[in-house]
């Protein structure tokens, strides 16, 4: 059964950093594009970043550009989202998703002093 599991969420002060991991099992994540999405309370889920399977090209939403970095380690079947200079508006549940619609369970990120 293909599965994605996020980890690395938590509580961080404004200006801090977190690294989210999205570990795949039951399939080879390197064959698929992987995206990160987030959903804040009372808001719709939005796309944050994604990385292609072919050439490693990346996409970032304007709201995170310059602060977040997506990367993948195909040997570990894992995609990462490095989040720097976090602001309270980044508070949300973060999900990863493969291009064949496998979703993770989500990881809570809370940015607060």
Task: Please describe the topology of this protein.
Blueprint: E1 3-7, E2 10-12, E3 18-25, E4 34-39, E5 46-51, E6 58-60, E7 68-73, E8 78-83, E9 92-98, E10 107-111
Parallel strand pairs: 2-10
Antiparallel strand pairs: 1-3, 3-8, 4-5, 4-9, 5-6, 7-8, 9-10
Compact description:
Helices cover 0% and strands 49% of the residues.
If you had to describe this structure to a student in words, what would you say it looks like?
The structure is a single chain. The protein is mostly beta strands and 113 residues long. It is 0% helix and 49% strand. The protein has no helices and ten strands. The strands form two sheets. It has a six-stranded mixed sheet with strand order 2-10-9-4-5-6, with no helix packed on it. The protein has a four-stranded antiparallel sheet with strand order 1-3-8-7, with no helix packed on it. A hairpin with a 4-residue loop joins strand 7 and strand 8 (78-83). The chain is globular, with a radius of gyration of 13 Å.
């Amino acid at each position: 059964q293909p599965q994605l599991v996020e980890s690395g969420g938590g509580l961080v002060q404004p200006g801090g950093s977190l690294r989210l991991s999205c570990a795949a099992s039951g399939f080879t994540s390197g064959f698929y594009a992987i995206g990160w999405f987030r959903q804040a309370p009372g808001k719709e889920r939005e796309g944050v970043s994604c990385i292609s399977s072919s050439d490693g090209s990346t996409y970032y939403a304007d709201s995170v550009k310059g602060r977040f970095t997506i990367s993948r380690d195909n040997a570990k079947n894992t995609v990462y989202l490095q989040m720097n200079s976090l602001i309270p508006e980044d508070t949300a549940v973060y999900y990863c998703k493969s291009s064949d619609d496998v979703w993770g369970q989500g990881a809570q990120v809370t940015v607060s002093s």
